[in-house]
Amino acid sequence: MSTRRHDPWLGHVLGDRYEVVRRVARGGMATVYEARDLRLSRTVAVKVMHDHLDADDDFAARFDSEARAAALLSHPNVVAVFDQGMDDGRPYIVMEFVSGCTLRQVITREAPLAPARALDLLEPVATALGAAHAAGLVHRDVKPENVLISDRGQVKVADFGLAKAVADAAPAAEGEIVIGTVSYIAPEIVARGHADARSDVYSLGIVLYELLTGRKPHRGDTPLDVAYAHIQRDVPPPSASSTTSLVGGRIPDYLDALVATATSRTRSRRPLDAAVFAAHLR
Prior knowledge:
single chain; globular; 35% helix; three-stranded antiparallel beta sheet; 9 helices; alpha+beta; six-stranded antiparallel beta sheet; 11 strands
């Protein structure tokens, strides 16, 4: 009863069609709910933008771009978008509901992972992002929280809220806030606000490092310290980490090399896009 009192969306029917059942997750821009599609009698996920962002045209545009970006992609490893709309002035997106967990939860429970397990989890993520890159889209916020793993083991990439068409991914103006998660952000985004497919590859390399070691490669007292570490320091070889698991055997040299190539601070030395990176993983 108290949850319903604090969250008025619970029990509400969005757009006279989607009955909100329970809250699944809350992020910086929106809350995700499990809902019932009353017209098609199926379970869906509904992402509703936070009320304090209603008046911010930039956030509303970014929210709209997520639906449009994901709707362009029809791929088994991308969370499908079904619908979008407005309810009482609040934008919402209706998506495929994935019952399971996030890659973050897998890392928390299992990391450091055996090399084969890490590759099995990351390859479909790279494949999904390869499809996005082929469609001319850059995700720009690749991180374990945005990777969903269904109860049947299917891996799906979610949250294209920061996605941009490659042609529109221009450098940020001086002083503009760079949006992204600092632990996985590419150096060129920190330095110039510029992102392309190789920026997503950098983030994939960081995720691979974390899967293999159970830790992030760069740490600092503030998010700004972490962000600038991506510019100033190379990602160390995962085999050098003191937390590396011996369960799956020694991390092979080729995985050290793959992480080093994907996370090169020189953008031109990385794989051209996620499809190329996926081929390397395979």
